[in-house]
Amino acid sequence: NHYLFNIIDAGGVRLVDGPYNCSGRVEVYYAGQWGTVCDDNWDLLDAKVVCRALGCGAAQKALDQAHFGGGKGEIWLDDVECSGNEESLLSCSSDGLGSHNCGHFEDAGVICEGQSVRIVDGPNHCSGRVEVYHDGSWGTVCDDNWGFLDAQVVCRELSCGPATEAPHQAYFGEGSGSILLDDVACMGSEGSLLECNSGGIGNHNCGHDEDASVTCMMDDGPLIRLVDGPDQCSGRVEVYYAGQWGTVCDDDWDVSDADVVCRQLSCGWAMDAPGQAWFGMGVGIPILLDNIACVGTEGTLFDCPSEAIGQHNCMHPEDASVVCSDSTSRVRLVNGTNNCSGRVEVFHFGQWGTVCDDWWDLRDAQVVCRELGCGEAQEAFRSAEFGEGSDSISLDDLACSGSEDSLLQCPHSGLGNHNCVHYEDAGVTCTGKITV
Known about the structure:
Domain SRCR: 13-113, 117-217, 224-325, 331-431
Helix content: under 10%
Radius of gyration: 23 Å
InterPro entries: SRCR, SRCR-like_dom_sf
Structural class: mainly beta
Order of helices and strands: EEEEHEEEEEEEHEEEEEEHEEEEEEHEEE
Protein name: Soluble scavenger receptor cysteine-rich domain-containing protein SSC5D
GO cellular component, one term: membrane
Distance between the termini: 53 Å
Keywords: Disulfide bond, Glycoprotein, Receptor, Repeat, Signal
Largest sheet: 6 strands, mixed
Number of strands: 26
């Protein structure tokens, strides 16, 4: 009784409780909450789909029996059978959402190759002994020739800011596994420690009393944040430099740039890359980056080509923003006078689609306004008041009570099921106004 699911986009998956962003217990998002995946039939092909959807490279291991601890709440998937080419775990064959015969001690996990370096046994996640992942296990790095340029690559790879020290002689304690790297000689610009010159994986003449370490400047997390959005995975992009936070100009800003931000913040991937101060203007802070041109695979926004830090021809009404796949909000308003009015669109099947105005009323609009942090609903518009959409129509026959947290929690005819055309696109205006 297996069948295919395309319920939400590939961003509806995350990894939890692993040692780094690209490993952990697999969880999927459905019906407004995260739930786990049962390990029945779980294998490397299934893990491959998860790793690719999260931008974490190839799958290294598919783990069972709650290797990263048991989750809480729902178990959403069981008997998952992917071919390995699917864009989303929910596109794979399974027993159906919510159908399972498992307990959380069977929660599935993965280890992806996307992040093959970690810092351990220090006072925080940005200071400690350096370890690399190879052939299924973690090993240390010998301190022969270990220096500041090597430490700089590690700190940048782990989104920990600039390096401040490169300690030798097992400064943060000795490791217990293999010694995997020796005579590391980074230029300082490499994207990963494993791209640097070395004696080769496993070749060394060291003992663990020579394990290399790093201390990075930014002990509290990445040098980037999202501000004034409805949750931690959407908002205005701000970066930290020379002791202060500043905004990013929207010149050339696109989804490839936003992808880097979302991945850096462990927020999945980019659903939208709005410009024009969509989540409000930065106040009293500088504009630090302009003309960013990311490929989309960079580790941090600072690795992307751009104008020199602080060089720009912008003003704060051009501040850039992102909406990431791990944002709790799957709704946006477009073509309005500000981001709290406009045509209602929801994210579905990897794209934004409109909402049909059948049954559309103030209770539905109230849910949209609250979900977007836009205050109360003023008016629920019909007949494409804010212009017609051009892509799919995602929702029809909405019947919200008005108390739901998200439009997708309301009764409706099913994602993608409708009998409408775009001149019936629904819209709202809310009391709030985030942008100026």
